[in-house]
Amino acid sequence: MVTYKVRVATGKDLMSGTFDCISLTVVGTLGESHKQRLDHFGRDFASGSIDRYTIQCDQDLGELILIRLHKERSTFFPKNSWYCNYVQICTPACITYHFPVYQWIDGYETLELREGTGKTVLDENLPILLTHRQEELRAKQDFYRWRVFVPGLPNYVHIPSYHPPVRHRNPDRPEWNGYIPGFPILINIKATKFLDSNLRFSAIKTASFFLRLGPASLGMKIRGLLDEKRSWKRLKEIRKIFPATKTAISEYVYNHWKEDQFFGYQYLNGINPGLLKRCLCLPEKFPVTDDMVAPSLGEDTCLQAELEKGNIYLADYKILEGISAVQLNGRQQYHCAPLCLLHCGPQGDMMPIAIQLSQTPGPDSPIFLPTDPEWDWLLAKTWVRYAEFYCHEAISHLLETHLVAEAFCLATIRQLPMCHPLYKLVIPHTRYTIQINSIGRALLLNEGGLSDRAMSLGLAGFAEVMCRALAETKYEDLYLPNDFIRRGVQDLPRYYYRDDCLAVWEALETYVSEIINYYYQNDATVEGDTELQAWVLEIFNECFLGRESSGFPTCIKTVPELIRYVTIIIYTCSAKHAAVNTGQLEYTSWMPNFPSSMRCPPMQEKGLTTEESFMESLPDVKTSCIVLLVLWTLSKEPDDKRPLGHFPDIHFVEEAPWKSMQNLKERLTQISCNIRERNKTLPIGYYYLDPALIENSISI
C-alpha cells in the first residue's frame, strides 16, 4: 500500500464551509486511486479550515496530474455550497503537488482539477491533460456567454436564469416601481442574485455594500431632502447633504472650488486627469485673441509666444456636442460642449484663461474670461465642470475601466484554462468585477437609475457619450507612456497623477515581463499559443466590437507585444480605475464643483448672471441628493479588499513567478513610501495612485 498525505483548504469567507460529503480521487501518470471519502465525523470543511487526511492506494500513482473532488449529499444536513481554496498532496517521496481550486461547488457534482504548474497548450505532452483543458474551456464557453448590453458598447456576461420583469411606473405607489423606500434608485438585486457563485461578492462584501446604503438614504429622507424638487436657496444650504465623514480634500474642495488655481489643478490631479492636451495652435472654432487673455498671461509675453513655448493647454468637450437634454422632476434640463483654454505659468500653476460654451463661435457664444463679472466667470467654469461630469463618469470611469475590464474578465474565463500562465496572471485582477458591474448597470444605466433620474442627458444620452468614446478609442492610447507624449504633457510640472502612473506602470510592466518571459521563451511560443490567440481575438470582437480602425490586435506574434498587451489589461483593471474612482466622493460631494445637470441654458450674453441665476442653474435638491447617494455608495472603501500586488490565492506554484510577485510587492511598497513623503510637502496631497490604496481589481 502507498500512502498519500492530503491537505484541503476551505475559503475564509463566513459562508465558505459545507456539511456535504467530500470525496477525492487522485490521478497520476501510472494510475488513479479509488474514490475515498474525506471526513472526521462532521468536523471538516469549516470556513478557514485546513483539513488533513491520508489516502491509501494499491500502487504508486507516479507523477500526479489530476484530482477529482466529489461533493455529495450528507445524511443529516441539507445541501449547501462549498468554497475550496486548494488541495495539496504529498507523495511517499515527499514531493508536494498543489492543485488550485478557488471556486464554489454549489450542487452535488464532481470537479476535476489539474496540478498547478502553468502550461500553455504547446507544453502539453499527455493526451489526458490536453483533453482536460479542451473540456474545461468547452464547459465555460457553454455556461458563460456574451450578451449585447447597448449597441456600440462592450458586450457583457449573459445571465441565463434572469429575465428582467416589465415595470410600469406608478408615481402614487413607488413600491410597485421597484424602488427602495427612501432611496429612489432602482437596484436590480435579482440580476445579481442569478450570477454564478464564482462571480458574486463574498458574504461580507455583499452585506457591507448593501447595508451602507440604508442609513445615508434614510437620513436624507427624514430631513425631507429626497422629496424636494426646488432650487437650493443659497450655496451654504448645500452643505446639508455634505457627507458626515469629511476628508482634508473634500474640505479643500469646499473652501477653494471658486478659485481659478484649483479649477486648473483638477485637470492635473483631480478625478479626470487624462483629458488635457497641449495646444500649439488655436483651433478656428475657438477664436481667442491676444487682447482677451493678455491680463491673464502677464507682462512681457503674448498668446502666440505662450503657444510656441508650449504653455497653453486645451480641454475640448466636442464629444458631448449635439446630445439632447431631458426633463428632470418636470423641468427641462440643458447641455453644452464647451472649450476651455488654460495657461501653465512660470510657477507651474494651471490657470483657465478662456471658456467658450459651444463648439461654434458667434455672437450667441461669447468667450468668457477671468476679467468678466464674477458670477459670469464662475458660471462659465461651472458649465465646464458639468461637462467634466460626463467625461469622467461616462468615459473615464464607467466605459474605460468598468465595461472594458468586464470584457477582459469574461474573455479570460472563456478562453484561458486555469492552468494557463496568462489565466493565473490576469485572474486576480478580475475579482468581483462582473458583480459590481451588474450593480452599476442597475444604479446608473437602468430605468429609474442615476442617468435616468439625475442627469441632464438621461439614459440614452449618457449611453451615447460612451458609444462615441468607444468608437474613438485607439489601442496605442492605452499604452500609458505614449498617452502622455501624445497629449504633450510629459514634462508638465506638478502633474502628480502622471508621475505616480508611470511609477506604477513600470512596476507592473516589469512584473508582467518577468512572468511572460518565464513561460514564453521566444516569439514562436507566443504565435503558436492558440488559446492566447483566441483570447485576444475575443477581446477584439466583444470588447472593441471588431473595429479594425481601433488598432486593437486580433492576434499577438511577439513576446514584447504580449507584455504590452497584458500590462494594459492589468493596469486598466487596477490602477487606472483607482485614479478615477477613489476620489469621486471627495471631489463631487460639494455639488457645485461637479454638477450632473444644469437647469438654465448656457449664457449667451455677459453681465447678466447673478447669484440667484447661478443657483437656479444648478441641479435641484432632489437631483443633488440622488447623485450624492449613488456616488457615496460606489466610492466607499471596499470591504474584503486586496491591495495591488497582494496575491493570497496560490495560482502560481513555480518558484520564479513567486519571486516575481514578491519583487512587485517590494517595488510597490517603495512607490507608496515615495508618494507619502512627497504628499507631506503639498497643500493638497495626491494619493489616489498610492499602491497601498489601489485594489487588485475593480470591485467598487
From TrEMBL:
<keyword id="KW-0963">Cytoplasm</keyword>
<keyword id="KW-0408">Iron</keyword>
<dbReference type="GO" id="GO:0048471">
    <property type="term" value="C:perinuclear region of cytoplasm"/>
</dbReference>
<dbReference type="GO" id="GO:0005506">
    <property type="term" value="F:iron ion binding"/>
</dbReference>
<dbReference type="GO" id="GO:0019372">
    <property type="term" value="P:lipoxygenase pathway"/>
</dbReference>
<dbReference type="GO" id="GO:0010628">
    <property type="term" value="P:positive regulation of gene expression"/>
</dbReference>
<keyword id="KW-0223">Dioxygenase</keyword>
<feature type="binding site">
    <location>
        <position position="700"/>
    </location>
    <ligand>
        <name>Fe cation</name>
    </ligand>
</feature>
<feature type="binding site">
    <location>
        <position position="39"/>
    </location>
    <ligand>
        <name>Ca(2+) 2</name>
    </ligand>
</feature>
<dbReference type="GO" id="GO:0070257">
    <property type="term" value="P:positive regulation of mucus secretion"/>
</dbReference>
<dbReference type="GO" id="GO:0047677">
    <property type="term" value="F:arachidonate 8(R)-lipoxygenase activity"/>
</dbReference>
<dbReference type="GO" id="GO:0043410">
    <property type="term" value="P:positive regulation of MAPK cascade"/>
</dbReference>
<dbReference type="GO" id="GO:1990136">
    <property type="term" value="F:linoleate 9S-lipoxygenase activity"/>
</dbReference>
<dbReference type="InterPro" id="IPR036226">
    <property type="entry name" value="LipOase_C_sf"/>
</dbReference>
<keyword id="KW-0560">Oxidoreductase</keyword>
<dbReference type="InterPro" id="IPR001024">
    <property type="entry name" value="PLAT/LH2_dom"/>
</dbReference>
<keyword id="KW-0479">Metal-binding</keyword>
<feature type="domain" description="Lipoxygenase">
    <location>
        <begin position="119"/>
        <end position="700"/>
    </location>
</feature>
<dbReference type="GO" id="GO:0046513">
    <property type="term" value="P:ceramide biosynthetic process"/>
</dbReference>
<protein>
    <submittedName>
        <fullName>Arachidonate 12-lipoxygenase, 12R type</fullName>
    </submittedName>
</protein>
<comment type="pathway">
    <text>Lipid metabolism; hydroperoxy eicosatetraenoic acid biosynthesis.</text>
</comment>
<dbReference type="GO" id="GO:0034440">
    <property type="term" value="P:lipid oxidation"/>
</dbReference>
<keyword id="KW-0106">Calcium</keyword>
<dbReference type="InterPro" id="IPR013819">
    <property type="entry name" value="LipOase_C"/>
</dbReference>
<feature type="binding site">
    <location>
        <position position="402"/>
    </location>
    <ligand>
        <name>Fe cation</name>
    </ligand>
</feature>
<feature type="site" description="Essential for stabilizing binding to COTL1">
    <location>
        <position position="104"/>
    </location>
</feature>
<dbReference type="Pfam" id="PF01477">
    <property type="entry name" value="PLAT"/>
</dbReference>
<dbReference type="GO" id="GO:0005829">
    <property type="term" value="C:cytosol"/>
</dbReference>
<dbReference type="GO" id="GO:0016020">
    <property type="term" value="C:membrane"/>
</dbReference>
<dbReference type="InterPro" id="IPR020834">
    <property type="entry name" value="LipOase_CS"/>
</dbReference>
<dbReference type="GO" id="GO:0043651">
    <property type="term" value="P:linoleic acid metabolic process"/>
</dbReference>
<dbReference type="GO" id="GO:0019369">
    <property type="term" value="P:arachidonate metabolic process"/>
</dbReference>
<keyword id="KW-0443">Lipid metabolism</keyword>
<feature type="binding site">
    <location>
        <position position="397"/>
    </location>
    <ligand>
        <name>Fe cation</name>
    </ligand>
</feature>
<dbReference type="InterPro" id="IPR000907">
    <property type="entry name" value="LipOase"/>
</dbReference>
<dbReference type="InterPro" id="IPR042062">
    <property type="entry name" value="PLAT_LOX_verte"/>
</dbReference>
<dbReference type="GO" id="GO:0061436">
    <property type="term" value="P:establishment of skin barrier"/>
</dbReference>
<feature type="binding site">
    <location>
        <position position="577"/>
    </location>
    <ligand>
        <name>Fe cation</name>
    </ligand>
</feature>
<dbReference type="InterPro" id="IPR020833">
    <property type="entry name" value="LipOase_Fe_BS"/>
</dbReference>
<dbReference type="GO" id="GO:0004052">
    <property type="term" value="F:arachidonate 12(S)-lipoxygenase activity"/>
</dbReference>
<comment type="similarity">
    <text>Belongs to the lipoxygenase family.</text>
</comment>
<dbReference type="InterPro" id="IPR001885">
    <property type="entry name" value="LipOase_mml"/>
</dbReference>
